[in-house]
């Protein structure tokens, strides 16, 4: 049986995040949300599945957009991306 002391502490692998300041005058939240939408539309996700992803706290990036801007913002952006990218 292996000695557990030889393994690294699992707490050393805790997930962290860092906020990177954006450029003045750009809406980075909208750009990030649009990128998520385009990427998942390319994988043939339905609009409902993409919206569910934004609602799910497990998905940190999309959920951040959802918390900051709300469901109406995400739905409007989803409809704009679908029209402009198809």
Main attributes of the structure:
mainly alpha; extended; 4 helices
Put the structure in a nutshell.
The protein has helices spanning 28-42, 47-55, 60-69, 71-85.
Task: Please provide a written account of the structure.
This protein has a domain of 59 residues. The chain has 86 residues and is an all-alpha fold. It is extended, with a radius of gyration of 18 Å. Helices cover 57% and strands 0% of the residues. It is built from 4 helices and no strands. 13% of the residues are buried. Helix 1 crosses helix 3, helix 1 packs across helix 4 and helix 2 packs antiparallel against helix 4.
What is the arithmetic mean of pLDDT? Answer: 84
Low-confidence stretches: none
Portion of residues in beta strands equals under 5%
User: Could you give the order of the helices and strands?
Assistant: HHHH
Based on DSSP secondary structure assignment, what is the total number of beta strands?
0
Distance between the termini: 58 Å
The major pleated sheet works out as: none
Structural class: mainly alpha
Instruction: Supply the number of helical segments.
Output: 4
Bulk shape: extended
Helix content: 55-70%
- Rg from alpha-carbon coordinates: 18 Å
